[in-house]
Amino acid sequence: MQEYCIKLPDKPGQMADLCEALAAENINLLTATALTATGAVVALVTDDEVGTTGVLDRLGHEYHVSEILLVTMPHQPGSLAALSRTMGNAGININSIYIMSKDDDKAVIAFTADDVEAAREMI
After folding, report:
1. Is the domain of 53 the same as that of 6?
2. CA within 20 to 30 Å of 20's CA: 27, 43, 74, 100, which one?
3. What is the domain extent for residue 112?
């Protein structure tokens, strides 16, 4: 599973253009986040990595790809704190994090890290 972190022009309609281009290729978004604190950046995870790369290349946006790791944890206070502390104590920096799904008992968290192999061993 891959995260695409995309730099978009910070102007109206750019997110719509991106989402429409993905939809036109029948690519479904699994999760996404967008921020404009340092320019417009959207990070997303899709169900089609090859197709997503093709769309982004065609649109000409600058982007970076990172491997995503998944972890299932109890859906209760402190679970994310424990994961974060475990990674921090091991010297692993969490770069991004997503809640992929949750119910009353468990949550599936996706995250990227600066040392994927070490993070994989920790989970």
Report:
1. yes
2. 100
3. 69-122
Name the H helices within the chain: 14-24, 49-59, 79-89, 116-122
Q: Tokens standing for 84?
A: 């974060």
DSSP state for residue 1 in the 8-state scheme: -
pTM of the full structure? 0.86
Which residues, 6+ apart, have CB-to-CB distance to 96 below 8 Å? 3, 5, 33, 43, 66, 111, 112
Rounded to the nearest 10 degrees, the angle between the axes of helix 49-59 and helix 14-24 is 130
Tell me the backbone φ, ψ of residue 83, rounded to 5 degrees.
-60, -45
Tens of pLDDT along 53-88? 999 999 999 999 999 999 999 999 999 999 999 999
All residue ranges of the chain with pLDDT < 50 are none
